[in-house]
Amino acid sequence: MTDTEKIYHRLKSNAVSLKSAVDMLQKCPPEKKDKLIGLMREATQDIMRLLAELEAGPKT
Amino acid sequence: MDKLNILVVEDNELARTVMANNLAGQAVDFAKDKATAERKLKAGRYDICFIDLMLGNEDDYFGLKLIPLAVSKGIYSVVMSSCDTEETIGRAYALGCKEFYVKGNEGDNIAAIIARYLQGDGGKKIQSVFSTGFITNDPATRALVAEALKYASTSLPLLILGPSGTGKTTLAELLHVHSGRKGAFVAMNCAAYTEELLEAELFGYKKGAFTGAQENRKGKLAQADGGTLFLDEIGAMSQTMQLKLLKAIEERSFYPMGADKLEYSDFRIISATLEDVQKLLAENKLRFDFFQRVHGMTIALKPLAQRKCDIFPLVEAFTKKAKRLAFELGAKDYLLAHDWPGNTRELKRFVELVAAGTQGIVMLETVKKHITHSAPVQTQAPMRDITQAQYDCALKYGLSAAVDRFSAGVINRNLSENNGKKAAALKQLKISKCLLYATLAKCKTEGK
Q1: In which band, very low, low, confident or very high, does the pLDDT at B386 lie, cut at 50, 70 and 90?
Q2: Higher pLDDT residue, A14 or B395?
Q3: Are domains B5-120 and B304-370 of this chain identical in fold?
Q4: Whose CB among A39, B67, B114, B322 lies 3.0–4.6 Å from B14's, allowing a Cys bridge?
């Protein structure tokens, strides 16, 4: 697997986890909400980082 | 049911949190890296293992290497990955994984995976359901319950039909136990309350909501939060109450009586009725929109008279932790010949009576003494043993036309079973050629 493929894989993985987490968030009890939002924020930052890597150019 | 032991191999913490949420109710363990996954799999005490293929940023499908290890330990291996190339899927299956899913729809997929696991584990778990949870040896009932269990872990509504005492509540509770829902199983019989009381019971009330409401009281909807609300005899509910409940089901929120603040409850609804649903709808006793919200999958339980192979397994189950019973041959025959109009409930009461008053083998006289006389034993099919559909047909078209339709149905079925051989039908059904040909001619005319 090339580095670019790995980036795409991680992007997809983070994106679907975020989508599922959003569904979960709506029913999440208040005491767990903050932790979940924190994890979602980390996933978002990971997505930002991966997108920046893609922008920086292909590593093949 | 015992919880399933499940291992989730996943490096992403958010994905692990999502899986933990979707596997609530099972015994779930996690491995976030390769070494932990290998160590835990080698311990081999899991029923199912969910494997993410890529563990860590620099990984090249290490998850694939875990599949043979899991399979060698007899663990049901499921790949859940974002990487779904044809080559990867092929490799995963070749290594022995049972199911391959693309991440992103875990809620529905996990429920389906668990249901398939329960069915395909050599039948062990499903067998235990039929020997402890819902006792039956009847193949059709087993198939029905097994089918219903596939939907247990979903949030879809279920409707259970069947005469009184056939085990509707038992089945509803079994489905709740298999649902993985952490909340309570809350059952209520709608026919047991007046409209006002039913509203108070379902929605709860605030202090002072009505005369006698001296304190706040949680209703059944709130009690079933995170669990299952089982509503028996839904046909007994008024149209107004159905409308109120419909809104609560739709929005998962409601106002308790006397409250000005909306309350929320994540309940799953299972309902039941012993009445003919189509008739209830036709007579406007059941609102169609309400029915649409509660019917989901429909499970029709047969009366005990149509699954007599269950009589002795049930007797054994009823006496499992108490005095065991042994019946003489004549007594056994009598039990099998009885119609059991009260179904399982009648059988249970009978067993309790016999166990309390008998020493040694149970004789025929004892059995006769305790079986309700309003249901006399008949060796031939009793005249009253007609289906509701047949009865409705007679009311609709007249008895003569209904008999003709019934005859045509029997003759056509028999011909179909005998590959159209009329001689076989004449012999098996003991009918005249005249009746056979007249019926066939009539069917042809009516285009049946």
Answers
A1: low
A2: A14
A3: no
A4: A39
Q: Does B17 reach chain A within 8 Å, measured CB to CB?
A: yes
Residues whose CB is less than 8 angstroms from the CB of residue B81 and which lie 6 or more positions away in sequence, other chains included: B51, B52, B53, B54, B63, B88, B100, B101, B102, B103
Could you tell me the pTM of the whole model? 0.57
- Kindly report the CATH class assigned to B153-300: alpha beta
Enumerate the residues of chain A whose CB falls inside 8 A of the CB of residue B30: none
How far is the alpha carbon of A19 from chain B, nearest alpha carbon, in Å?
Answer: 7
How many Å lie between the alpha carbon of A45 and the closest alpha carbon of chain B?
Answer: 13
**pLDDT value, residue B126:** 67
Q: Do A9 and B266 touch (CB under 8 A)?
A: no
Q: Do B106 and A39 touch (CB under 8 A)?
A: no
| B251 contacts chain A (CB < 8 A) | no
CA distance A15 to chain B (A): 9
pLDDT in tens, B170-199: 999 999 988 878 889 999 999 888 888 899
Residues B233-287 pLDDT 10s: 998 899 999 999 999 999 999 999 998 899 999 999 999 999 888 888 998 888 9
For residue range B195-208, list pLDDT tens digits in order: 888 999 999 998 88
Question: What confidence score (pLDDT) does residue A35 get?
Answer: 92
Which of B13, B83, B106 comes nearest A39 by C-beta? Answer: B13
* CB contact B103 to A (< 8 Å): yes
Q: CA nearest B52 in A: which residue?
A: A13
What's the CATH number for B5-120?
3.40.50.2300
Whether chain B has a CB inside 8 Å of the CB on A22: the answer is: no
How many A/B residue pairs have CB atoms within 8 Å?
55
CB contact under 8 Å between B104 and A9, yes or no, is no
Distance from CA of B374 to the nearest CA of A (A): 53
Question: Is residue B375's pLDDT more than 70?
Answer: no
- Would you kindly state where each structural domain of chain B is located, as residue ranges? 5-120, 153-300, 304-370, 388-446
How close is the nearest chain B Cα to the Cα of A33, in Å?
Answer: 12
Tell me which CATH code domain B304-370 carries: 1.10.8.60
